[in-house]
Specification:
CATH architecture of the largest domain in chain A: 3-Layer(aba) Sandwich
Mean pLDDT of chain A: 85
Strand content of chain B: under 5%
Strand content of chain A: 5-15%
CATH class of the largest domain in chain A: Alpha Beta
Number of domains of chain B: 1
Structural class of chain B: mainly alpha
Low-confidence stretches of chain A: 1-6, 8-37
Keywords (chain A): Signal
Number of strands of chain B: 0
Radius of gyration of chain B: 24 Å
Pfam family, one (chain A): SBP_bac_8
CATH architecture of chain B: Orthogonal Bundle
Protein name (chain A): Carbohydrate ABC transporter substrate-binding protein (CUT1 family)
Mean pLDDT of chain B: 88
Organism (chain A): Kribbella voronezhensis
Largest sheet of chain A: 5 strands, mixed
CATH topology of chain B: MetI-like fold
Number of strands of chain A: 14
Number of helices of chain B: 13
Distance between the termini of chain A: 58 Å
Helix content of chain A: 40-55%
CATH topology of the largest domain in chain A: D-Maltodextrin-Binding Protein, domain 2
InterPro entries (chain A): SBP
Structural class of chain A: alpha/beta
Oligomer: heterodimer
Strand order of the largest sheet of chain A: 2-1-3-13-6
Largest sheet of chain B: none
Helix content of chain B: over 70%
CATH superfamily of the largest domain in chain A: Periplasmic binding protein-like II
Shape of chain A: globular
CATH superfamily of chain B: MetI-like
CATH class of chain B: Mainly Alpha
């Protein structure tokens, strides 16, 4: 009887251990401590396939030559925009088992980790690696929180881009080479497309794609300073100018495809490519997608969203130094690679984004990226809420909910109220 | 004394691991969740939290988004239960009346249950495409091909709460009607043939036979079906998430809202939603457990 009891407890203990060890499994080398295991650098990303994976592989090959003492351990969790990865990461961080370094959107979204005390200040590394000289000042300003910087950006994406089908525009008598000067002019063009029989003049898709349309309208109508201030609570979100902008957003939405809540951004882009739509608003990862889909350069055109020329609405993927992470020296070597000219080139030529460094050579990059790089140097840089540069995860969740409510039942007053409440929340 | 342990000891030992594991991983965690829901832990910061009583619940029930998700859940549950029962009972009746190749039909009706909700959600996401007319895809396209154009509709993307949530319930109905059919078919088969014969001898019409002889005997099955469907509907998450994605105000139910809240590290609020959901499930399950216990003790 006794033997049976202790055996039962032994079995239970084993089951319990299994259950516990199953909880935090993203860190493969947690219990190791051997000489070779201690040199592992676990890099946590949500780049699991496509152009993103190719970009990560590019970084890894640079890492393997630059940091020979360390071994790269891939800890990627698949899922669009990190929806699954962020939850896994939150668990690991809460359990005090952070990876060596993890991916996070630079800006307000990173603010959550900073407030939670989960990432270390890397300002010293900026001086050590010379990044304070290599990155443009406007980007550094956007990265700095209370005088400190907490991450190294690997790339820069632009959000305020309109992708258009020149053949469709020409049929409606529109000039495809030049963006309409204002949102009002754009609405007039959309009306012409509709009159010419284009079903969905402005193609868009669910969730953040609609949020991006709203953002470019807000940016165009409010101007860069008031737009940036909006997310910081410095611009009155209940103001009449915001109401006017949202009313124009409602108008724009009325020209879009009816299945906008049921499709993803590549489908919306597909409508443009197939000539069923005139425009779509989407970030510049579209360039990589068009390349992957073998759409020829001549079949599409792009410009900054109407009324936002001269503004570069940015988002950046960046890497952090988690507090209490394993082997911080290895992580620092990874950050050095991420910030280096070679690393940024290896990463960005494959991912379709542009390097954050201003000393990159444009001729190394495809056509779209070259134009974006020129803009990055000369334009005013404003953050994007949809991609975490201007908003925290919580704010973005509330805004996305309000946007989807608006898509089903457009009511400007409800949207504006929800927007104002979301910005005030954390 | 020693002899008594011999009788109940082995049984208790066999059950002990289950009891302990359940006690910790189910009831312990429920208690922990409830405790979290009473705190002000609204972020991932490792600072000590303090208890704020039922503040989170008060906030939840004062929030449009949460009330909307509860209403969505109510409509979804009604549409799902009614739809599944109608189809399940209908199919069971048809099979019960006798059909050649019954086994094949049984498999066909039961098969959707083998598909996971997340997989069927992805497919139904395509089928429920709201485009109509020339652009119609998915079910709308099928209706157009069958010249049933009047059936084309925007599904969950426009229209009232009822049409929205009924569209979401549609895949779940498709998935579980076969299961309900199996339940009822087993029920019909469990009724002794003598009862039917006696009723027919007494001159009962076919309708009266079902109305007064067969259906009354199926009430325990109907009750189990109701409970099973009810609690499944309350917990429905994967299907909705797969069809509409996160942050869809129109189709958000508490389970999806809880996930979104958890993603923003608002632990206390997420725990509060979880406890509300648990309470709603309990309202359904507890009467059923009480009923079963009473039935068993009567036997």
């Amino acid at each position: 009887m006794r033997g049976g009891l202790s055996k039962t407890f032994a079995v239970m203990g084993a089951v319990g251990l299994l259950a516990v060890s199953a909880c935090g499994n993203s860190n493969d080398n947690s219990g190791g401590g051997g000489s070779s295991a201690s040199k592992d650098v676990t890099v946590f990303t949500w780049w699991a396939d496509g152009g993103e994976k190719a970009g990560l592989d590019g970084l890894v090959s640079t890492f393997n030559t630059e940091c020979k003492d360390y071994k790269f351990v891939n800890s990627a969790v698949a899922g669009g925009a990190g929806s699954n990865a962020k939850q896994v990461l939150a668990n690991d961080l809460a359990a005090k088992k952070p990876p060596s370094t993890f991916q996070a959107h630079a800006g307000a979204e990173l603010g959550d980790y900073i407030k939670n005390g989960q990432v270390d200040d890397v300002s010293d590394l900026y001086k050590e690696f010379g990044l304070d000289q290599a990155f443009p000042k406007s980007l550094l300003d956007n990265l700095t929180v209370d005088g400190k910087i907490y991450s190294v950006p690997a790339n820069v994406h632009r959000a305020n881009v309109v992708w258009a089908n020149p053949t469709v525009l020409k049929k409606a008598g529109l000039d495809a080479t030049k963006a309409p000067a204002t949102v009002d002019a754009w609405i007039a063009d959309l009306e012409k497309l509709k009159a010419a029989g284009v079903k969905a003049p402005l193609a868009t898709s669910k969730g953040f794609a609609q949020e991006m349309v709203m953002e470019v309208v807000l940016l165009a109508e409010l101007g860069p300073d008031k737009f940036t201030g909006l997310w910081k609570g410095e611009t009155d979100a209940n103001g009449a100018d915001v109401t006017a902008a949202l009313t124009k957003y409602q108008k724009l939405l009325s020209y879009s495809n009816v299945d906008r809540d049921a499709i993803d951004w590549p489908d919306a882009l597909g409508y443009v490519n197939k000539g069923q739509a005139g425009y779509t608003v989407m970030g510049d990862w579209v360039a990589a997608q068009q390349l992957a889909d073998k759409v020829p350069d001549s079949a599409y055109t792009y410009w900054p969203a109407p009324g936002t020329a001269g503004n570069f609405q940015f988002l950046a993927d960046s890497f952090t130094l988690p507090t209490g992470g394993q082997d911080p020296d290895g992580a620092k070597c990874w950050l050095k690679v991420v910030g280096s000219a070679d690393g940024q080139k290896a990463f960005n030529t494959k991912k379709g984004s542009i390097p954050a460094r201003s000393d990159a050579v444009p001729t190394d990059y495809p056509k779209y990226q070259q134009s974006a790089m020129a803009d990055w140097k000369s334009n005013k840089i404003v953050p994007s809420c949809a991609h975490g540069a201007a908003c925290s995860l919580g704010q973005n969740d509330s805004i996305l909910s309000a946007i989807s409510q608006f898509s089903g039942k457009p009511d400007v007053a409800t949207l504006q109220k929800a927007l104002a409440t979301a910005i005030k929340s954390s | 004394m020693h002899g008594r342990i011999r009788t109940w000891g082995p049984g208790a030992l066999v059950l002990l691991p289950t009891v302990l594991l359940l006690g910790y991983f189910v009831y312990g965690l429920i208690a922990w969740t409830f405790n979290t829901s009473l705190t002000d832990k609204h972020n991932a910061r490792p600072v000590p939290t303090k208890h704020v009583g039922f503040e989170n619940y008060v906030n939840l029930f004062g929030e449009d988004r949460f009330l909307n998700s509860l209403k969505n859940l109510g409509v979804l549950t009604v549409a799902f239960i009614v739809g599944t029962l109608i189809f399940g009972v209908l199919w069971a009746l048809l099979l019960e009346k006798g059909v050649t190749g019954e086994g094949v039909f049984r498999s066909i009706f039961l098969f959707p249950m083998a598909v996971s909700m997340i997989a069927s959600g992805v497919v139904w996401g395509w089928l429920l495409n709201p485009s109509q007319g020339d652009d119609a895809r998915g079910l709308n396209r099928l209706f157009a091909l069958l010249h049933l154009n009047f059936l084309e509709n925007p599904w969950w993307t426009a229209g009232s709460r009822w049409t929205t949530m009924a569209s979401i319930a549609l895949p779940a109905v498709w998935q579980l009607s076969g299961y309900i059919m199996a339940l009822f078919l087993a029920g019909f088969r469990g009724i002794p043939p003598e009862l039917r014969e006696a009723a027919r001898v007494d001159g009962a019409s076919e309708f009266k036979l079902y109305r007064y002889v067969l259906f009354p005997q199926l009430s325990p099955i109907a009750l189990s079906a109701l409970i099973i469907l009810g609690h499944m509907s309350l917990k429905l998450f994967d299907l909705i998430y797969a069809i509409t994605g996160p942050n869809q105000f129109r189709t958000e139910v508490p389970s999806v809202y809880m996930w979104n809240t958890l993603l923003r590290s608002d632990m206390a609020k997420a725990a509060g939603i979880a406890i509300v959901l648990l309470a709603v499930v309990a309202v359904l399950v507890i009467p059923y457990v009480a009923y079963t216990v009473r039935q068993e003790s009567e036997e």
